[in-house]
Amino acid sequence: MPRGDLFSPLDPFQTGRLQVDDVHNLYWEQSGNPDGVPVLFLHGGPGAGASPTHRRFFDPTFYRIIILDQRGAGRSTPLGDLRNNDIPHLVGDLEALRAHLGIDRWMVFGGSWGSTLSIAYAEAYPDRVIGLVLRGIFLMRRSEIDWFLYGMKQIFPEAWNHFNAYIPVAERNDLLEAYWKRLTHPDPAIHLPAARVWSMYEGSCSTLMPSPELVSASGEDNHALGLARIEAHYFRNNMLDPEDKLLRDIRAIRHIPAVIVQGRYDIVCPIRTADELHRAWPEADYIIVPDAGHSAMEPGVRMALVQATERFKTLR
Description:
By secondary structure, this protein is of the alpha/beta class. The chain folds into 2 domains: 14-139 and 240-313, Alpha/Beta hydrolase fold, catalytic domain (Rossmann fold, 3-Layer(aba) Sandwich), CATH 3.40.50.1820; 142-238, no CATH class. The chain has helices at 87-100, 113-124, 142-149, 157-165, 175-183, 188-204, 212-218, 221-237, 245-248, 271-280, 299-311, and strands at residues 14-19, 25-32, 37-42, 63-68, 106-111, 129-135, 258-263, 285-289. Strands 1-2-4-3-5-6-7-8 form an 8-stranded mixed beta sheet, with helices on both faces. α5 packs across α8 (221-237).
């Protein structure tokens, strides 16, 4: 029977830093089997950073599990730094890490923003990717960004009202600019409270059933600052050109084995986007979890992701 839950906790067998330019120093780690099939985990956000739990989607006896905190996120430094922080740089960082670790080809696993970056990397370097596991699809289009800023109030009005009310009435016609001004302010007394509100708004909308633990973790200072500042930066400055570029270029990776996992009631990244991706990429396996929202930790989503990594043991 296919495995249905996370693997046991484990520690890395190696950690390191990769200096990718004059600004950014990236944290990376490896765990599991040093001689196993390499798999790269890409965290969400952008800016959320990775956690020890993310190692547990993979059988550590089979996979060489590689985790990277992206520019400005998690344990990478400087935290929340926006210089040289865009999709081409992030894609380049993944390729630099692959070369640094001496890996020829690897599997790539990413959810939410991690799905965006996974697709962008695979389209840029299709010969380096042996398989893709994608969750909670986000394709960086204006309609998806506007949904996050304004549309989620249709389902989570309480959370959105708090998100909106933090901004003075005179600035509420453009929440992104209002938050951007605060999140990039040099004074922590200004940027940290705004970051907590932004991050906890997202956390409040990320699960099918309320999760006070997730909302509380979303308000932790380092997590909130990395997530909120870098998300606002990407929403404001990193639109793809054309904005449907990831869908338009999907033909470059349709030959790569892939699994798309989507919660039916994902409000942060609604299922319509995953449906569009699958229509453009019918070769990919498409798994709709009927009783789940956005979080990778939703029981049904977690099970589907682990089962996908188990199925992909046939890839080399």
